[in-house]
Specification:
The protein is elongated. It has two domains: about 250 residues, FAD/NAD(P)-binding domain; about 140 residues, no CATH class. The chain is α+β, with helices and mostly antiparallel strands. Helix 1 runs parallel beside helix 15 and helix 4 packs across helix 15. The longest helix is centred in the C-terminal third of the chain and has 24 residues. The protein is built from 15 helices and 19 strands. The two termini are about 25 Å apart. A hairpin with a 2-residue loop joins strand 13 and strand 14. The strands form five sheets. It has a six-stranded antiparallel barrel.
Length: about 425
């Protein structure tokens, strides 16, 4: 594969995740000479992690609902996502020989389910487009003339380019390359950067040490969480410090914001969302015979040991043994177990991060208003989204938008 045309321009892309790789491809296709810098020894390290349990590329839901997933950032991201929507991402994958399919939840996956085949095909394409990769180059800011500085195993080096696209990610999973070190460099140029915070993360709880020690690693399956009018159905997992998992991640933004505001957040967990309280009450009111109370919960209500333990925790905090509760009161508790969250889990273990460069700092080309010729994309920008394909989609889309913006700026302002 060769570039469509040759241009005299040189571009630097800093960060070899999905946003940076997509920006590099679009620039190289247009004939720009592209050098891709990354602090890691190989590109796409976090992208590979994202595909460990099945690479969820995007989602198939209708556009309006899809965009709403980005909350306050939706107006800023709309044009980029509409220009490179889920359908375009799927077509791009299939051009690389990676067919996709829509799962029962509406999520979109490559048929291989892994990220490694897609990444290998992508890197072969970039090599054919003559993209130069500079590994083990940790960006270290700008020099006095605006040149790019990098720390390498051989010392500090400088690089010049006609345009630079930054796609350095957030601060989750720093061992894979995204550690948020870039925020100080941008702030030193008076560019507004919202503090990086964990998103799609777990939480510490007031659940007892005994409960966490006994049930650590065990799932709470098929539950429904409720918080401030929002709800999420799915699974959660008991951790050493509290709770994490898909249902928790879906509400992590409002939960995190409440903890920041109030110091804690109270959610309720419906342990049997498929059954009405009246049905549960009837099942609990039946004679127990010689069955233990834990067997009643397991057989009559079909609660797992971890779910029954959660009930025991709530009863203890209420000051009454669980076995003393009436069937009606117990049914009500099963439908709304109160849990107090006290802190987010560490940002280094979060799936993604919130915060980043304020959209007001960017023009419609994703170029920094204070730094002509410098563009930003991906998780560096101040947006967040739930899991389900929305994270990767926005990274791909903003990477493409920044590259198109750079091409427009090069042709208009540098020609």
């Amino acid at each position: 594969m060769k570039p469509d045309t040759q241009t005299p321009f040189e571009a630097a892309v800093i960060g070899a995740g999905p946003a940076g790789l997509m920006a590099a491809e679009i620039l190289a296709r247009a004939g720009v000479s592209v050098t891709l810098f990354d602090r890691m020894p190989a590109p796409g390290r976090k992208f590979l992690l994202a595909g460990r349990g099945g690479l969820n590329l995007t989602h198939s839901e209708e556009p309006g609902r899809f965009l709403a997933r980005y909350r306050e950032a939706a107006p800023w991201l709309r044009e980029a996502i509409e220009a490179f929507p889920p359908a375009a991402l799927r077509a791009w994958c299939e051009e690389l020989g990676q067919e996709t399919f829509v799962g029962t939840s509406g999520r979109v996956f490559p048929k291989a389910m892994k990220s490694s085949p897609l990444l290998r095909a992508w890197l072969r394409r970039l090599a054919a487009l003559n993209v130069a990769f500079k590994p083990r180059h940790r960006w270290a800011g700008w020099d006095a003339e605006g040149g790019l500085l990098f720390d390498t195993p051989d010392g500090r080096v400088q690089a010049a380019a006609d345009a630079a696209i930054f796609a350095l990610g957030g601060a989750s999973w720093p061992r894979l390359g995204s550690d948020g070190h870039w925020t100080a460099h941008f702030a030193s140029r008076s560019i507004a950067v919202s503090p990086l915070k964990p998103a799609n993360c777990g939480f510490a709880t007031e659940l007892s040490d005994l409960f966490r020690a006994r049930f650590e690693g065990q799932p709470l399956k098929g539950i429904e969480l409720h918080f401030e009018g929002a709800n999420a159905r799915g699974d959660a997992v008991v951790t050493k410090t509290g709770l994490e998992g898909g249902a928790i991640y879906a509400l992590s933004a409002p939960l995190r914001d409440a903890i920041e505001r109030d110091g804690e957040a109270f959610l309720t967990i419906d342990l049997r969302p498929g059954l009405a309280a009246a049905e549960l009450e009837r099942a609990l009111a039946k004679p127990r015979g010689k069955q233990s109370f834990s067997n009643v919960l397991r057989k009559a209500v079909k609660l797992s040991p971890a779910a029954a333990g959660l009930l025991q925790e709530a009863a203890f905090r209420a000051g009454a043994p669980l076995a003393s509760w009436t069937p009606a009161a117990l049914a009500a508790l099963i439908k709304a177990v109160p849990v107090c969250l006290t802190a987010t889990a560490g940002i280094e273990r979060a799936i993604s991060t919130a915060g980043g460069i304020a959209f007001a700092e960017l023009d419609e080309r994703f170029m920094l208003r204070r730094m002509p010729g410098t563009f930003a994309a991906g998780e560096m920008l101040d947006w967040e989204a739930p899991t389900g394909g929305y994270l990767l989609q926005a990274c791909f889309s903003t990477g493409a938008a920044a590259a198109r913006g750079a091409l427009e700026w090069l042709k208009k302002d540098r020609s």
